[in-house]
Amino acid sequence: MLENNVHNCALAFEGGGYRAAYTAGMANVLLERGIYFDEVVGISAGASHAVDYVSRDQDRIRRSFIDLAGKREAGGIWSVLHGRGFFNAAYDYQGCVDDGFMPFNWNAFVANPAHIRIQSFERDTGRTVSFTRKSMKSLEQMLMCVRASSSLPGMMRPIAINGHVMLDGGLGIGAGLPTHLAEMDGYEKIFLLATRPQGYRKVPASPRMRHLYKHWERTYPLMAEALLTRWSRYNAALDHLSELEHEGLALVVRPDQMQVTSTTLDTQKLRHAYFMGHNQGMRELPRWEKFIFG
């Protein structure tokens, strides 16, 4: 059984697609320094970080947001032309494990007593769902939960769990910020690795995107509503997070600069983002440790 040394502070990972290459570098700073949390939460790409962090697999944390992007099977135009979406979710979560390209250390995941919570969204009910270890009894179930947390409408083929079509957890409560997941488990102190820089606020959808959402509204009204209101809900979650920061209950680590987007597949750019995140983490480590262990 693995042991953890952070008991009264939760680790939270924001999503953001391939912007998570930056926070991958930060996550590995935590593991390199032997900083192990009892509570780990994440949404979307942050869900991938959460399970990889719990398995303490530094190589997988890095490769998930660098090397995987370079695989033709993982996404891009080839995937779109084959009807699999811009991101080929079937390969990105299960396929890359099955073929040995991105093995997952299931034994280490099971041996870690840390509590984990990740979030998804039921397309047809509008219900926010969170998954814990109770939903992750096997490697396949765990990978399905992570995929469910990350299935962006229009970008990936969704997956069904227990008869419900699941979409990206960023459509649900918090609109992508995972603060509330730690609060659900009774944690008041939160260390959050963000993928957006200081001062970022979401804005309403562009006319083009609103037109697309309105088109989806005919078939999936609750999904469309979640997409249309996400900007305001995200900003409200940001305001709550700012209050926690002001009270000394949250430390939000924001990237100094973000030079990649959620859909960047250029491995050279992603590798640069990873090392920028790692360098920032090493530079800020004393501040991190003071908050985490203080």
Describe the 3D structure.
The structure is a single chain. The relative contact order is 0.18. This protein is α/β, with parallel strands linked by helices and 294 residues long. Strands 1, 2, 3, 4, 5, 6, 7 and 8 form an eight-stranded mixed sheet that branches. It has helices at 20-32, 45-54, 58-64, 77-81, 89-98, 106-111, 139-150, 179-184, 207-217, 221-246, 267-293, and strands at residues 6-13, 37-43, 115-122, 128-131, 159-161, 164-168, 190-193, 250-253. The protein has a single domain (6-201, 234-293), classed as Cytosolic phospholipase A2 catalytic domain (3-Layer(aba) Sandwich). The radius of gyration is 18 Å and the shape is globular. The mean pLDDT is 96. A hairpin with a 5-residue loop joins strand 3 (115-122) and strand 4 (128-131).
N-to-C series of helices and strands = EHEHHHHHEEHEEHEHHEH
Strand content: 5-15%
- N-to-C CA distance: 26 Å
Please identify the top-level CATH class: Alpha Beta
Taking all residues together, what is the mean pLDDT?
A: 96
General form: globular
* Superfamily (CATH H level) name: Cytosolic phospholipase A2 catalytic domain
CATH topology: Cytosolic phospholipase A2 catalytic domain
Q: Name the poorly predicted regions.
A: none
> Helix fraction?
40-55%
Characterize the largest beta sheet: strand count, sense, and whether it forms a barrel: 8 strands, mixed
The structure class reads alpha/beta
Looking at the overall shape, the CATH architecture is 3-Layer(aba) Sandwich
Number of domains: 1
Rg, rounded, reads: 18 Å
What's the total count of β strands?
A: 8
- Number of separate helices: 11
